[in-house]
Amino acid sequence: MKYVKLNNGIEMPMLGFGVFKVEDGQESMDSIKCALEAGYRSIDTATIYGNEKSVGAAIKQSGIPREDIFLTTKLWNEVQRTGDVEEAFAQSLKDLETDYVDLYLIHWPVKSRYVDSWLALEKIYKSGRAKAIGISNFHEHHIDDIKKVWSVVPAVNQIEMHPWLTQKPLIKFCNSLNIVPESWSPLGGTAWQDGKVRENLLENPVIKSIGDKYGKSTAQVILRWNIDLGVVTIPKSITPSRIRDNINIFDFTLTPDEIAAIDALNKDQRVGPNPDDFNF
């Protein structure tokens, strides 16, 4: 495992395990236990995922010391609108069966609310119940807004990022402020047109050819591309073989030419909502 040092000195694994759309209960428990057994030491959840209780229980049952696991959760949009940030955070800690999280993020920049939300996260951080705080799905202008008031610089900006959406300007901007970029949906997805599959990133011939050279899958190459770019990444799977394969990326590195070839696949194409235009 490789680690990155956040701007407050905390170390974060470069590869984590995401549980978005992983069903609460047995599915979450089994997949998290499999990930921890495979060597993952970073788990990324969120209140809106509805599986914080399963995450907490799986960590407890794993027998791995809490201090050895980097745990992330997120502040949901509706809580930003009501302003009940402290109450929501306390509930997350209860559901996760822990007295602290390693990283607490604002999930989306809710209009007219995210600046106040950031100030609320600063209070949580200063209380010691979040070892680091950060943001998710923030564009440059959102960061500029909270920059006007912050006394704590966000440690992380978790963004959609994959070979179809390389986010080069945003990553450069984050790096200039010592904010670590983290990618969600790192394996992209499937492009559809008129109800038919137009393209699947995991079948891309450029990435496949690079994988053939190293004896790696396209998913492993994409995850390694993230790591080589200095971007933390959190792939999600409920399939044990894929969970194990996704962490098996630390025995090779990509050349600058290979990184450039993957960069060139960018089309500024999202699989999720644009942070400037979401309605939830």
Description of the structure:
The protein has helices spanning 26-38, 52-62, 77-82, 85-96, 114-126, 140-147, 168-176, 205-214, 218-228, 240-247, 256-263, and strands at 3-5, 11-13, 17-18, 42-44, 70-75, 103-106, 133-136, 156-160, 180-184, 190-193, 196-200, 232-233. With 280 residues, it is an alpha/beta fold. The chain has a domain at 3-187 and 230-236: NADP-dependent oxidoreductase domain (TIM Barrel), CATH 3.20.20. The strands form 3 sheets. An 8-stranded parallel sheet has the order 3-4-5-6-7-8-9-12. A two-stranded antiparallel ribbon has the order 1-2. The protein has a two-stranded antiparallel sheet with strand order 10-11. Strand 6, helix 5 (114-126) and strand 7 form a beta-alpha-beta unit. The radius of gyration is 18 Å and the shape is globular. The mean pLDDT is 96.
In short:
By secondary structure, the protein is an alpha/beta fold. The protein has eleven helices and twelve strands.
Instruction: Name the strands of the widest sheet in spatial order.
Output: 3-4-5-6-7-8-9-12
Question: Which CATH architecture of the domain at 3-187 and 230-236?
Answer: Alpha-Beta Barrel
CATH topology of the domain at 3-187 and 230-236: TIM Barrel
Q: How much helix, percentage-wise, in residues?
A: 25-40%
The number of E-state strands comes to 12
Radius of gyration from CA coordinates: 18 Å
Determine and state the CATH class of the domain at 3-187 and 230-236. Answer: Alpha Beta
| Biggest sheet record | 8 strands, parallel
Q: In DSSP terms, counting alpha (H) and pi (I) runs of 4 or more, how many helices?
A: 11
User: What is the overall silhouette?
Assistant: globular
* Mean pLDDT over the full residue set: 96
Which structural class best describes the helix and strand composition? Answer: alpha/beta
Strand content: 15-25%
The quaternary organization reads as: single chain
In whole angstroms, the N-to-C terminal distance is 35 Å
Order of helices and strands: EEEHEHEHHEHEHEHEEEHHEHH
Poorly predicted tracts of residues: none
Q: What is the CATH homology-level superfamily of the domain at 3-187 and 230-236? A: NADP-dependent oxidoreductase domain
